[in-house]
Design goal:
Layout lengths: L13 E5 L2 E6 L9 E6 L8 H10 L1 H6 L2 E7 L3 H9 L14 E3 L4 H5 L6 E4 L5 E4 L6 E6 L5 E7 L7 H17 L12
Parallel strand pairs: 3-4, 4-5
Antiparallel strand pairs: 1-2, 1-5, 3-8, 6-7, 8-9
Family: Belongs to the peroxiredoxin family. AhpC/Prx1 subfamily.
Protein name: Thioredoxin peroxidase
Keywords: Oxidoreductase
Length: 192
């Protein structure tokens, strides 16, 4: 697994669904110099675990926004699938009400560039290159500063959900360090 911490976040342009609108060439560059970005990957739309995380990010979205953080999700599904999932009621496994961008990585290049794509290429018995495994994203999360540098990354296997409040703590720690120049020890939490 590639460590991206301390490096520029891989750039991309891709379709994204924002509310009910599709943006054809969404890029994280729109936030450069303005906002932090919490860019997270999840395996698949219309799955059992993923909506719990997407809805938890939405629930804490006001806290992220208060800290100047844009939340952006990404999976290997198409923008059409994202849009359909957003239109599906919560009681039917949908994520209606999610307002942050959902990037479509149907080509799987964004997931590959962030090194969160499950599976790998190998050779078949006949010498042909084949993909082994399910080409979905792991549960990757990247905290990107206003200069576009990855400051924190976390990657979980697909069955292991994240605690979204931990992401807020990492944002607080980064902002505390930037403001005061003080490191944040284990279990550090911002003054409330």
């Amino acid at each position: 697994m590639a460590v991206l911490v301390g490096k520029r976040a891989p750039a991309f342009k891709a379709s994204a669904v924002i509310g009910t609108q599709v943006e054809a060439e969404f890029s994280l560059d729109r936030y450069l110099g303005k906002r932090y970005v919490l860019f997270f990957f999840y395996p698949a739309d219309f799955s059992g675990l993923c909506p719990t995380e997407l809805l938890a990010f939405q629930e804490l979205l006001p806290e992220f926004e208060r800290r100047g953080v844009a939340v952006v999700g990404c999976s290997t599904d198409s923008h059409q699938t994202h849009a359909a999932w957003l239109r599906t009621p919560l009681d039917e496994g949908g994520i209606g009400g999610v307002t942050y961008p959902l990037v479509a990585d149907a080509s799987k290049t964004i997931s590959a560039n962030y090194d969160v794509l499950a599976g790998h290429y190998d050779y078949s018995e006949t010498g042909e290159m084949v993909f082994v495994g399910t080409p979905q994203a792991y549960r990757g999360l990247f905290l990107i500063d206003r200069d576009g540098i990855v400051r924190h990354q976390l990657v979980n296997d697909r069955p292991l959900g994240r605690r979204i409040s931990d992401s807020l703590r990492m944002v607080d720690a980064l902002q505390h360090f930037e403001e005061h120049g003080e490191t944040c020890p284990a279990n550090w939490e911002a003054d409330k």
